User: Fold these one by one.
Assistant:
Number 1:
Amino acid sequence: MSEQALVIDNFQKDATLPLMPNPAVWTSYDSGWSNIHAAHFRQPAWELPKFYNLQHIIIIPIAPYRTVNVEFVLEENRLLKMQYHPTDSLDGCIEIFPANLCSKISWDKDIEHTHFYLEPAFVSQVAHEAIDPDRVELVFEPKKVDFLVYQICLALQADLQLGSGNSFYADSMATALSAHLLRHYTTRKHTLREYEDGLPKDRLQKAFDYG
């Protein structure tokens, strides 16, 4: 992995075009969302160049029509091979790609998946500014069953398809998603601050502004 890595800012529209041949089937970029974005892809067999993302990515894989062999080459040339079968039950299945993880990925059949992008700084803010953003490190998780994350992502997708353009709802779901990631998918265990009197002031003010 000696070649120069591409830097992908997934908060920019069409950011994946240097990586994959097909543009996204649909995205959230015209929805009014601000702290989370989503995009759905259908791609042919392909090999991505070396790259890393500026955002954390939650992926919802779609069961393929034919068995797909996927190969990940991660930092320090760590190799991981996986298969996705048409008979796989992917209900509740997610994948987590942390920001700044340098990797190369290839697959040998058509694939389909939905991406949800979270800014690392936003994930840290969910911990109510008690955590230095540089210390929040998510772990790489391929084919992980997590029904809560899965349902939050489906709820975001459903809201997007309704065309509501509801940034408050998207931010609320992004906050819940970030809190869950902080609790279960970081290299360090983080304790989130509890609020005995309800929402923290910044969240409460946002609720008032929305109303």
Number 2:
Amino acid sequence: MFDTAPLKIVAVAAGLSSPSSTRLLADRLAGAAREALAAGQDRRVEVEVVELRDLAVDIANHLVTGFPPAGLRKALDAVTGADGLIAVTPVFTASYSGLFKSFFDLVDNTALTGKPVVIAATGGTPRHSLVLEHAMRPLFAYLRAVVLPTSVYAASEDWGSQGDEYTEGLPSRIRRAGGELASAVMGRTVSGATRTPTLDDGEDALVPFAQQLADLRVG
């Protein structure tokens, strides 16, 4: 029997200002994923954005006491229960922000196993774009998530840029990342399945998903 529950995309935005370019990037990525999912299958798609700036005090208290307040528990449950995750941080001192790291320190290191994740970051200069590869991708690999091939970095100059004949502009990178997330989510939910095979299922169970990720990289 096919699952008729809505597909859930959760975006975590660690921006500190309001309005925030980090939140804007999270919204754009979530919108691209929702559009691609809506075009590719018949189930309803729900999008939730978790703004960490609103949870900063709760995160600090939880780190000290070990007991999450209700709002933080709801956010953690949303992240771990999502079909697809988008994680966006501003760049501070050539890495993700302390608030971003503190939040994901509270996520159990098996809770994101097999979950498809798009990583993204914002910064004032393109020079910090490697934060995606040397900081964020290893973090989510440790959490056993499946980090999708296309990551998105938005420097100040990228907003409004459409790219040129040699490079992709920010809108096209957002669409590509959203499409990859949608494809991965649909792969996890085919025939009513609700999770990606893991190492506990044996090597044979991992082959189809590994091939899907290979196809994503080629495409």
Number 3:
Amino acid sequence: MRSSNPVFSRRGFSRDNGYAGFNAAPQAGAPTAGANPYAQGTAANPYATNPYAQQDTQYGAPQAPARSGAMTIDDVVTRTAMTLGTVVLTAALSWALLPVDEANLGKSYGIAIGAALVAFVLAMVQSFKRKASPALILAYAAFEGVFLGVISSAVSTYISPGTVMQAVMGTMCVFAGVLIAYKMRWIRVTRRFYGFVMAAAMGFVLLMMVNLLFSVFGGGDGLGFRSGGLGILFGVIGIILGACFLALDFKQVEDGINYGAPREESWLAAFGLTLTLVWIYLEMLRLLSILNGDD
């Protein structure tokens, strides 16, 4: 099974020409979950005396023998920093170069919408590619940053100057909180957890799409899911879903490292984490805009 993002499904990490999902079902004839394939004491296994053939009994996760070129947590951190750094840099540049005053509002919004569409297409292409493409991922981050920069500038100009910083801090707090909870094993990513999150996310996205259609053809805020009390409720739900997908991302990264995924696939981890953090930031910005707009 593979982990997914609230908007874009993406492939799991490679392992022996397969995929290392967060709780992948064993193949026929393969060792069961938690068993090290190098620790089988049978005559058919030439690695039965391998010194690395130790089963990780503390967490029940299979550990692959150490090999060169395998993904590490440092690789994931570095690629994620590069991807998020691209988002932040282009967002800052678009904020400065694409003002949202009355004279330039239409032009800036047009560029932001165009950048969002390009980012969506690039993300979809990468999601269905078998291998990670660093150029594609960084291009997605750049266009996503343009969109976020203009939207953030508009919120800061027309709603509240402090809303953007509050949303940034809120996103960082959600990330830190989920990471701590995951490392402390307060959150356990299981098949049931995965199924519940995916079902909730699909329902959430469908409701937002219906609301968007009603707002386009009927005017106003459609069904009212993005304003008032309902807007606050759905904003909180969106943030909680983003936090759940962070846990799925952390589990996928952990499994990818344990299974010895190739180093270049750390770009997939960076891509997934960036998608999830952008989701959380947008939901946080929308929620705070409603709250600050009501003051």
Number 4:
Amino acid sequence: MSDRQHERWQRGNRIFWTYRDPDFPDLVDQRPVTVIADDDQHLAVWMAAGTRMLYQVSNDGQDLRSLSGTDRFTAPRAQAVRNWVGSGILAVFQANTMYSVWFFETKPGVRNSYYVNIEEEFTRSDSGIETSDLVLDVLVSPDRICTFKDEDELELAHRAGVFSTAKVEQIRQVAQQAVKDVEHWEFPFNAGYEGFQPDPDWTVPTLPTDADWEFEDVAGRG
């Protein structure tokens, strides 16, 4: 089914924000979120503090980031669940764009720290959106200074055969384009979300009733 065949969501609708790894297709990183806006320009969602979320761990329950070398990308995995710790996240997705932008609070009521997550273009379903993470990220400070994050992990993913040389080059080009978008303060950075606050009657969405997992709260942090 084409994305165009899915109706737009309304403010306050609850959907699932899901990442899949093609090498581990039966596992997910899944976050129940509330829709802020959904139009031709973007989809904005809110993930509240304390949200119960699915994520992946090694098959013996270790945080993947604790594994060494290429094992971080190739070791067998299992499904886990935890609560998101810290303040909520406002995330913006744009069609035909290989990154999402997450707005973080730097102080109460001010979301002017940005996390640019490089990922595949998202697809829609009736229940939410789905994409795949591409490892490299860009951190944007309140004074608009950009810093690349996880370049070492991108190299490990390349060595592990997760990404081809051409794919790594594409990922880096997307990250550079994101930096240019920051420099020119393009959408969604100029969208006015810095002062966003969730509607007071919004409650925390829950995971699907059929969700299951083997491990709980392994990482213990957001």
